[in-house]
Write a structure and sequence with these properties.
This protein has 18 helices and 24 strands. The chain is α+β, with helices and mostly antiparallel strands. 38% of the residues are buried.
C-alpha cells in the first residue's frame, strides 16, 4: 500500500503533489506477505486467496535464479532455495518465503571471488527458472490492479505533459536511455502513451558501462528498429588514464560525470535538436526512492546540468517493486546485469556503488576490477597512506575531498603580487608561460583589441561590448609567466567593486592553469560558444576556444563554478597542512 499525506493541508491525498496547495506530500509504502500464495502484496488482503497478509517491508525486488544461486554458494548451500520465493527488501536484506535469512553483505572480504566464480560455472547448468516463473506468475496476478493504476497515471502524465509542450516547433523531445531498468520502463511508457515508436532515445556511453548493458543496447536496437538510438560519448579520453592524472573519482568529486557523460550528452542534444533555438523535453527514469538527493527532485522541472532542457519524470514516485512488476508483467526485455544481483547499472566502478556491487564486479568482471584496484592502490601510495590495501578495500578512496599528492594540484595556486602604486592593477606570476590561449579566456569580459596596446610590452586592451570603450588592460609578453591586469573602468563582468572584479580575473587565470579538458564549461555555456580542442596525445591536453560570434558576454562561464573551474574543486589540496584561503 502506498499512501500520501499533505502536512500543509493535513489531509490524505492520492498523489505526491497535493491537489489543493500543490506542495509535495509525504509518501509511505507498505508491502505485505501472503503466506498461502508465498508472494508479496500491495494490499493486506490477498486478491488470489483472500487471506490476510502480514507486514513485509517497504520496498522489495525479486531475486532472480542467478543471484539466488550466488547467495546459496556463499552460504555453502547450493540450490537450497530453488523452489522457494526469494526476495530482497529494504536495507539489502534477503528473504526466503517471507522470512529474513541470516545473510549479510557487510563482510564480503572473507569470500574468494575466484572460488565463487568457479562454483557458479559448475552449478550453472543445473540452475532452473521453472519455480521462479511460477512464483512470478502468481505475483503478477495478485498485483495486477495496482499496476494498472500506476501505469495509467504515468501514461496520462506523459500524454498531458507532451500536449502542453510538443504542439510547437520550438520544442523537441527524447528519452534519456541508460540501459537500466528505470529508463527501460520510461521508454516503453512514453512510446505507448504517445503512440509513437519513433521517439528519439539518447544513450550516454560513459565507456564504463557493464558488458551486459552494451549487450542489452544491441538487443534493444534490433527489437525496436523504428526507435532511433543515438550515442553520446567521449572518444578522446580514457577513464583509467585520467585516474592516474586526477586521482580516482569520489562521491563528492565525480569528475568522470562531466568528462564522460554530461558534456557529451549536452552536445548531442544541441546537434540533434538545434538546441540553440529550441527547448528540449527530456523523459527521464529518475525515481525519488533511489537516494536522498533524488528525493528532492520535482516531477517536472528545468534541467539542472544541461541548458534549455525541460525534464519530465513519469515514474518519479515508483518503487523498485513497481518497476519489476511492470517489466515482468509486460515481458519486455531488460538488462541481464540485474539477474546477477546488481541493483543499479550505471558505471561499474562508480564511487557511489555499494560494496555488494564492487564484489559482484570482482566476480563477473575480474580483469577490469583488477586494473581499477591497481590504480586505486597506486593512488593510495601516492597519497602516503600507511596501509594502501586497507584504504582500497575499505572504500577510503570514495571519500577523498581534494587533490593532495596529485601533480596537477600545483597549478591550483595563483601567485599574486599587489601593486604598490595602483590599487586597480594586479600582478600575477603564472604557473605556465603566457600563450595566445590566455586571451581566449578574457573574451567573456569584452572585445579584445590587440592593436591598441604596445606590442613590445605585450599589451592587450579589452573594450566594453556595448560602448566599445576600454574597461581593462592585460600586460604580459608571450612566453613569460608574469601578467599584469589593470581596471580602466567599470562595470566588468557585471561587477563594480574592485575586489569582486579581481576574483573574476582569478577565475579565468585558474582555468588557464588548470584546464584539463573536463568539458564542464562547454555544458554551462547556453550560447554554445565554448569549445575544447584536443592538442596533445594525453587525455588532458586541450585548447580552450570561445567563439566571439556566439558569446554574448553573460559571464556565466566565469561565475558558474567556485573559483572559476570545475577541476579546481577536484584538484584543490585539502586536509592537514593545506588551506583553501592560501590557494
Amino acid at each position: 500500500m502506498v499512501s500520501y499525506y499533505c502536512n500543509n493541508c493535513k489531509i490524505a491525498v492520492e498523489k505526491s503533489e497535493c491537489p489543493i496547495c500543490n506542495k509535495r506530500t509525504e509518501m509511505k509504502s507498505e508491502l505485505y506477505w501472503c503466506p498461502s500464495c508465498n508472494i508479496p502484496l500491495y494490499e493486506e488482503t490477498c486478491p488470489l486467496c483472500h487471506g490476510r497478509g502480514a507486514y513485509f517491508t517497504s520496498d522489495a525486488r525479486p531475486v532472480f535464479p542467478e543471484e539466488r544461486l550466488l547467495i546459496e554458494i556463499m552460504l555453502d548451500q547450493p540450490f537450497a532455495f530453488l523452489h522457494d520465493s526469494v526476495w530482497n527488501g529494504t536495507g539489502n536484506r534477503y528473504y526466503v518465503n517471507g522470512k529474513r535469512i541470516p545473510f549479510s553483505v557487510s563482510n564480503l572480504r572473507r569470500y574468494d571471488p575466484e572460488e565463487i566464480r568457479a562454483k557458479l560455472e559448475r552449478y550453472k547448468p543445473q540452475n532452473s527458472y521453472g519455480p521462479f516463473n511460477e512464483m512470478i506468475g502468481r505475483w503478477i496476478q495478485a498485483n495486477a490492479q495496482h499496476l494498472h493504476f500506476i501505469t495509467t497515471e504515468a501514461r496520462q502524465y506523459v500524454s498531458g505533459y507532451s500536449q502542453r509542450f510538443l504542439n510547437t516547433d520550438n520544442v523537441a523531445s527524447f528519452v534519456s536511455f541508460s540501459g537500466g531498468k528505470d529508463s527501460t520502463v520510461v521508454s516503453d511508457l512514453v512510446r505507448k502513451a504517445l503512440s509513437n515508436p519513433s521517439v528519439i532515445h539518447i544513450f550516454g556511453n560513459t565507456t564504463l558501462e557493464f558488458p551486459q548493458t552494451y549487450e542489452y543496447l544491441e538487443r534493444f536496437r534490433k527489437e525496436n528498429r523504428k526507435t532511433p538510438m543515438l550515442r553520446a560519448e567521449n572518444r578522446d579520453q580514457d577513464f583509467f588514464d585520467l585516474c592516474e592524472v586526477f586521482g580516482p573519482p569520489s562521491r563528492t568529486l565525480r569528475w568522470c560525470c562531466n568528462i564522460f557523460k554530461t558534456g557529451f550528452i549536452g552536445e548531442k542534444i544541441k546537434r540533434t535538436f538545434d538546441a540553440d533555438n529550441k527547448a528540449v523535453l527530456t523523459f527521464y527514469g529518475i525515481r525519488r526512492s533511489e537516494s536522498a538527493s533524488r528525493n528532492t527532485y520535482e516531477r517536472s522541472s528545468v534541467g539542472r546540468k544541461i541548458s534549455k532542457q525541460l525534464v519530465a519524470s513519469p515514474i518519479i514516485d515508483w518503487l523498485d517493486y513497481d518497476i519489476w512488476l511492470y517489466l515482468l508483467t509486460t515481458g519486455i526485455d531488460f538488462n541481464d546485469a540485474y539477474r546477477l544481483g546488481y541493483t543499479r547499472v550505471g558505471c561499474w566502478c562508480c564511487p557511489n556503488n555499494s560494496r555488494w556491487s564492487q564484489f559482484l564486479a570482482s566476480i563477473y568482471m575480474p580483469e577490469q576490477s583488477k586494473r581499477f584496484h591497481d590504480i586505486l592502490y597506486r593512488f593510495a601510495v601516492k597519497m602516503g597512506k600507511e596501509n594502501p590495501e586497507e584504504y582500497v578495500a575499505s572504500g577510503g578512496w570514495k571519500a577523498r575531498q581534494g587533490g593532495a599528492g596529485i601533480e596537477l594540484s600545483k597549478n591550483v595556486a595563483i601567485e599574486f603580487k599587489p601593486c604598490a602604486t595602483d590599487a586597480k592593477s594586479f600582478n600575477y606570476v603564472l604557473n605556465k608561460p603566457i600563450t595566445r590561449e590566455l586571451y581566449e579566456l578574457f573574451k567573456p569580459f569584452g572585445v579584445l583589441k590587440f592593436d591598441m596596446g604596445n606590442p613590445r610590452l605585450g599589451e592587450v586592451y579589452i573594450l566594453d561590448h556595448k560602448t566599445m570603450q576600454p574597461i581593462m588592460k592585460l600586460q604580459g609578453r608571450l612566453g613569460t609567466d608574469e601578467l599584469r591586469i589593470t581596471i580602466l573602468s567599470t562595470p566588468i563582468a557585471h561587477r563594480i567593486k574592485t575586489a569582486e572584479i579581481e576574483l573574476k580575473f582569478k577565475c579565468q587565470i585558474t582555468k588557464y592553469q588548470l584546464c584539463a579538458g573536463c568539458h564542464a564549461c562547454e555544458t554551462v555555456c547556453k550560447q554554445n560558444a565554448i569549445k575544447l580542442i584536443k592538442v596533445g596525445e594525453t587525455g588532458y591536453q586541450y585548447r580552450y576556444e570561445i567563439d566571439e560570434g556566439k558569446c554574448n558576454h553573460c559571464c556565466e562561464c566565469i561565475n558558474h563554478y567556485t573559483g572559476g573551474c570545475y577541476m579546481r574543486r577536484v584538484l584543490l589540496p585539502r586536509g592537514k597542512g593545506y588551506s583553501e584561503n592560501e590557494q
